[in-house]
Amino acid sequence: MPQGPPPAAAIAARADGHLKVAVSGEIDILSAPQLRVTLEEAFSDGCRVVEVDFSGVEFCDCYGLGVLLEARRRAADQGTVLRLVSVTSPLVQRLLHHRYSGGPARPAPRSEQPKDSLILSSLI
Predict the structure, then answer these.
(1) How much is the pTM?
(2) What is the spatial distance between Cα 112 and Cα 54, in angstroms, rounded to a whole number?
(3) Whether pLDDT at 77 is above 90
(4) Pair 53, 88: CB distance under 8 Å
């Protein structure tokens, strides 16, 4: 597993029913619980859209993926849109690509998202 700075996940901004969560570092068995808590806080805020910025994430394993799946389920239950944006790490891109081949993580509409975002609404 890559060694890097300690992970961090924090609510970065709220505006007009949108909430942004900034995540950095490595999301693994040790840090995934922190991401889970931050996302639970984000969902309890009652926002229509929760955007998770992964631009600072260098690594994500199956534990981090599990947290994203839980968040997707909660978002669906609440009628909230969950967006994963700025996935810049090749390792994280590969994890999402291989796990969801066939397109369940689909590009977000350009009119609503940055071009590097994903909507996690169809992940199982």
Answers:
(1) 0.74
(2) 18
(3) yes
(4) no
